[in-house]
Amino acid sequence: MYQIKRVIELHQQGRSIRQVGRLTGISRNTIRDYLRRIALSGRPFEELLALDDEALMGIVQVDPIEKNRAGRMADNRYGSIEGRLEYYKAELNRRGVTRQLLWQEYRTDHPDGYSYSQFCEYLGRHLKKDQAVMRFTHRPGEQLQADFAGDKLGYVDRQTGEWIACEMLVCAMRFSHYLYVEALRSQQQEELIRGLANTIHYLGGAPQSIKFDNTKSAVTRASRYEPTFTEAMDMLAAHYGTTVLAARVRKPRDKPSVEKGVSMAYNQIYGPLRDRIFYSMEELNAAIRQQLELLNNKSFQAKAGSRKELFESQEKPLLKALPPTPYQIKHVTEGKVQRNYHLILGEDRHQYSVPFTLIGKRLRIIYTTETVEIYDGFSRVAVHKRSYQKNGYSTSSEHMPERHRHHARQRGWNAAHFEQQASRVGPATLKVIQRILQSRYFYEQTYNSCLGILRLGNQYGHQRLEAACSRMENAPMVNYGMVANILKHNLDKSSSDPELFTPPHEQIRGPQTYQ
Predict the structure, then answer these.
(1) Cα(281)–Cα(194) distance, integer angstroms
(2) What DSSP designation does 515 have?
(3) How far apart are CA 250 and CA 269, in angstroms?
(4) What is the secondary structure of 262-324 as a DSSP string?
(5) Phi and psi, residue 182, nearest 5°
(6) Residues 471 and 497 grouped into a single domain
(7) Domain for residue 119, yes or no?
(8) Dihedral class, residue 149 (left if φ above 0, else alpha if ψ from -120 to 50, else beta)
(9) Range of the domain at 9
(10) What count of other Cβ atoms lies within 10 Å of the Cβ of residue 429?
(11) In terms of Cα–Cα distance, which of 258, 286, 63 is closest to 176?
(12) How many C-beta neighbours within 10 Å does residue 191 have?
């Protein structure tokens, strides 16, 4: 009877049947039966707790005869189907199995059993037990629900032209349905932690709990009752003074607010951005933030106000204050400085520069999702923005030897650079350079040709280079070799028609052939 008294105490405290079941180990149906009989007794809880075991048993004990009066045994045929209802439910999930087939099998075993319509009635009642929806009353600031959207947004890498797909983190406050959406590079733990930290700072405070799916980046061991979270998730919760919870596997009703939030993100964010092209994650998230503000400020359809108004008036004052600094996962590794005065961060296969005087030394690398810091002992010798470009380089000019800096300045070419140099020679030279730059899909493929033509001015003089380029005005194509050939053979000094580039020959057809 001490367990029954414990049930009464917990129920008196306002605990739900599910919570009472977890704390006492008694099934929910048994608890419901106890509470029903206690309610029928009409006695107050204090009086029931003061009764001895025998008296209390007389109130909560279930009479088998009363069970029969409930009607479950009124029809003897029901006993033949009752124990198989769960089996029928499972069979309906198999391909090709219908209610008609199950009924035929049932009548084969029980010729005097129910008709098809009555069979379907009892089976339908059993199936509806799993379709019940409970309405919860949520308290302000109580819980933040988070999930990844199934569909993705992305951006185009300017250097490679590759479309980079981004994971979309969607978070929703349970009471106000105030939303936060952010594009992340992946669902890995480091990105998830950064996204959740950004969410908390966007809200301006920490909720009492954060509920998330059983993803591997958050949960190391899934369990309905005692899931085990990763150390990083526990540290995130400790940093912000909140609690992390895990939803049941494949139970979307455990987090209906964020499920609805994902649907709204598709309509209010994905839709308006569907035809826009972005060239960085920062640009993508800036556009998402604009649409997010419109969504949170949009008025409710069935009640007054908006998500933002409801959140700021009733939830934000109840959130826990933010710590002085945002939480970030820090990783520590080491690397040897190569002869090119760069260290390799093995996780990304990206190289970061350090002062060239440290070549050959082993240095410590401390990095987060945003920054990479490099230390020689306790002295920080370099700090870079983290790059996720594989086999790429992040180089600071101040780390280079002087001769390397000079060479790097020389190699700082682009289309505007060559056009500026050509304009100093003359308009004909500028036109030739522009035609060469436009002759390839990538400007970089033409830089050597442009450099060679401009250097011809150093060899022959700008006046002769301009004259040579003027003879290329009507040429079908231009390149370095043609300009160099004109200067080499002094054709720029000739007074002949500049449009003539090929000498007459009996095997070469001219315009007169096509008259």
Answers:
(1) 14
(2) -
(3) 26
(4) HHHHIIIIIHHHTT---SSHHHHHHHHHHHHHHHHHSBPSSSSSBHHHHIIIIIGGGSBPPPS
(5) -145, 140
(6) yes
(7) yes
(8) beta
(9) 2-62
(10) 26
(11) 258
(12) 19
Ramachandran angles phi, psi of 320, nearest 5°: -75, 145
Instruction: HSE, CB side, 13 Å, CA atoms: give it for residue 499.
Output: 3
Is the predicted pLDDT of residue 180 greater than 80, yes or no? yes
Task: Tell me the sheet residues that pair with 165.
Answer: 154
* Residue with the two structure tokens 């003897």: 76
d(CA 399, CA 76): 90
- Residue 223 lies inside a defined structural domain of this protein: yes
Domain boundary among 62, 89, 105: 62
CA contacts within 13 A on the Cβ side of 414: 3
Query: For residue 375, what pLDDT is reported?
Result: 92
The stretch 65-90 carries a mean pLDDT of: 67
As given in the structure block, the two tokens for residue 178 are 């105030």
- Count CA within 13 A, CB hemisphere, residue 193: 27
How many folded domains does the chain comprise? Answer: 5
Does 384 share its domain with 253? Answer: no
- Contact residues for 18 (Cβ-Cβ < 8 A; gap 6+): 28
Domain check: are 109 and 54 in the same one? no
Alpha-carbon span 164 to 75, nearest angstrom? 65
Distance CA 246, CA 195 (A): 17
CATH code of 279's domain: 3.30.420.10
Which has the higher per-residue pLDDT, 257 or 491?
A: 491
Helix H or strand E segment including 120: helix 116-128
Residue 72 lies in a domain: no
Under the banding of pLDDT at 50, 70 and 90, the label for residue 248 is low
- How many whole angstroms separate alpha carbon 48 and alpha carbon 375? 69
Rounded distance, CA 486 to CA 386, Å? Answer: 50
Specify the pTM. 0.47
The pair of structure tokens assigned to 470 is 């003027």
- φ, ψ (nearest 5 deg) of residue 147: -165, 160
**Cβ 338 vs Cβ 359: under 8 Å:** yes
What pLDDT band is residue 254 in, cutting at 50, 70 and 90? Answer: low
Q: What are phi and psi of 150, to 5 degrees?
A: -70, -45
CA distance 426 to 473: 13
Distances (CA, A) of 455 to 340, 451, 485, 487, 494: 29, 6, 14, 12, 22
CB-based contact 115:153 (threshold 8 Å): no
Rounded Cα distance between 264 and 179, Å, is 9
Distance in angstroms (rounded) separating the CA atoms of residues 251 and 245: 14
Rounded to whole angstroms, the Cα distance separating 23 from 6 reads 9
Q: How far apart are the first and last CA of the chain?
A: 116
Question: 80 burial class (0-12, 13-18, 19+ CB within 10 angstroms)?
Answer: middle
Output the DSSP codes for 354-371.
--GGGTT-EEEEEE-SSE
d(CA 56, CA 351) in angstroms, rounded, equals 75
Structure tokens at 23: 């704390």
Residue 355 to residues 44, 341, 375: CA-CA distances in angstroms? 79, 7, 11
